């Protein structure tokens, strides 16, 4: 009874060792290290697993078995011939250290297995489909068990019987199933890794193409208008008032094109150059003066709530651009008019700015996609304005939180780290 229980414990230990080896090996296969480091780590993991399997064999009546062949075969197939020879050396050396009888038969069996792997490794690595690789594993596993049974029969013919052959067959099935599972999982992981790389490349290309399409489309419109009015200026019958009108429209369209390009450059490189102390109450008042006429035209009432004086380190022009874009978006989200609440407060060491509108709101999917290239909730928007907001806030070491509900409105919360206006070491803080 005790022997059976101990055998069951060792079997559970082997299962744990197989699973541990499997997950660690797959992790190293998927790692981004160089080939030499991957080879070293795979040999280390496989070699340690071999030693542990041989140290704690499963004792059965008449003989002992273990799963040392699993890390040996997997490590050799994926590591190559060099790793196969190193693992073979580990097995032989440790078997010699353990001092079990019939070392010659053991050496002959594993030398034959090494020769088999030596010829099979190139074919396995060149196999394109998972199905072919599983066939190779089936063949290798069968021949490996056959070699062990053959050498054992030559060394201990008196112990070779039907029970031993049945145990060998069961061992072969278990080993083949485990090896197949590991190979299938590794190959699927490699396929998923390659697909992930391709998807990332395609996403980058799509981002570039979307931004390029957005910029070219938005810039082409004002340029087309300018071209038309410049052609009209060639008419000799125009009055001075008409010429001035055409020129003013052309300049407005030119400013519009310049604004679009500026937004793009700000998104591409949201760097801060002239960093200084910003009094957020003062900066918010300036931004509100700019957008107040637009709010009045849109029928939006703005309510402002200021806390005590709050200071941050940043660039005033970039901060204005960020806040004005955010307030403008909030106003445009209320096409039928509404109420816009802007609050400024200091919580712990954070400056908190809340911009809350009573507009159309957004779904969770729309909130998650905010700030991504070429995404906008407006019919004629480019998405650049929102990207600029997120980029500038990040450049000033801030963060944005968005809460929204369709039909009820949206809350933008911007948090910046504060600084003390009287801090004598402010210059160092800014740097």
Structure description:
The protein is α+β, with helices and mostly antiparallel strands. The chain is 67% helix and 13% strand. It is built from 13 helices and nine strands. It has helices at residues 2-30, 35-55, 69-79, 81-98, 103-126, 130-155, 162-232, 240-268, 280-297, 316-332, 364-369, 384-395, 426-430, and strands spanning 58-60, 63-65, 276-279, 300-306, 311-314, 338-347, 350-357, 399-405, 409-417. The strands form three sheets. Strands 4-6-7-9-8 form a five-stranded mixed β-sheet, covered by helices on one side. β6 and β7 form a beta hairpin. It is elongated.
Order of strands, widest sheet: 4-6-7-9-8
What's the CATH topology label of the largest domain? Arp2/3 complex 21 kDa subunit ARPC3
Largest sheet: 5 strands, mixed
Class from helix and strand fractions: alpha+beta
Cα separation of the termini: 74 Å
Radius of gyration: 36 Å
Q: What proportion strand?
A: 5-15%
Order of helices and strands: HHEEHHHHHHEHEEHEEHHEEH
The low-pLDDT segments are none
CATH class (first level) name of the largest domain: Mainly Alpha
Number of domains: 3
Q: What's the β-strand tally?
A: 9
Give the proportion of residues in helices. 55-70%
Average pLDDT, all residues: 77
Number of helices: 13
CATH architecture classification name of the largest domain? Orthogonal Bundle
Shape: elongated
């Amino acid at each position: 009874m005790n022997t059976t229980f101990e055998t069951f414990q060792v079997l559970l230990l082997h299962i744990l060792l197989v699973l541990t080896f499997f997950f660690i090996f797959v992790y190293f296969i998927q790692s981004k290290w160089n080939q030499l480091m991957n080879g070293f780590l795979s040999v280390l993991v496989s070699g340690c697993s071999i030693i542990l399997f041989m140290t704690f064999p499963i004792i059965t009546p008449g003989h002992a078995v273990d799963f040392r062949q699993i890390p040996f075969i997997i490590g050799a197939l994926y590591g190559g011939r060099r790793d196969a020879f190193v693992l073979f050396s580990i097995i032989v050396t440790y078997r010699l250290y353990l001092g079990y009888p019939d070392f010659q038969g053991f050496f002959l069996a594993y030398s034959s297995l090494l020769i088999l792997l030596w010829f099979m490794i190139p074919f396995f690595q060149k196999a394109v489909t998972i199905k072919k690789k599983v066939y190779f594993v089936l063949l290798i596993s069968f021949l490996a068990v056959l070699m062990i049974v053959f050498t054992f029969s030559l060394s201990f013919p008196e112990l070779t019987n039907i029970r031993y052959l049945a145990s060998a067959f069961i061992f072969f099935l278990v080993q083949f199933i485990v090896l197949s599972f590991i190979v299938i999982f590794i190959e699927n992981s490699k396929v998923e890794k390659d697909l992930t790389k391709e998807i990332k490349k395609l996403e980058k290309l799509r981002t570039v193409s979307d931004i390029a399409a957005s910029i070219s489309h938005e810039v082409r419109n004002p340029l087309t208008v300018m071209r038309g009015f410049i052609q009209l200026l060639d008419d000799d019958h125009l009055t001075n008032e008409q010429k001035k009108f055409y020129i003013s429209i052309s300049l407005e369209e030119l400013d519009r094109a310049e604004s679009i390009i500026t937004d793009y450059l700000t998104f591409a490189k949201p760097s801060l150059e002239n960093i200084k102390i910003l009094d957020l109450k003062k900066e918010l008042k300036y931004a509100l003066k700019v957008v107040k006429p637009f709010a009045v035209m849109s029928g939006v009432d703005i309510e402002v709530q200021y806390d005590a004086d709050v200071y941050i380190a940043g660039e005033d022009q970039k901060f204005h651009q960020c806040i004005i874009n955010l307030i403008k978006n909030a106003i445009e989200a209320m096409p039928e008019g509404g109420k816009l609440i802007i609050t400024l407060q200091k919580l712990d060491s954070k400056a908190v700015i809340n911009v809350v509108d009573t507009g159309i709101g957004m779904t969770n999917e729309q909130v998650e996609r905010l700030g991504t290239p070429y995404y906008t909730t407006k019919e004629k928007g480019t998405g650049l304005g929102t990207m600029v907001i997120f980029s500038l806030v990040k450049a000033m070491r801030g963060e944005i939180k968005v809460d929204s509900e369709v039909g009820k409105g949206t809350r933008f919360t911007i948090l910046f780290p504060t600084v003390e206006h009287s801090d004598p070491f402010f210059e160092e803080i800014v740097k």
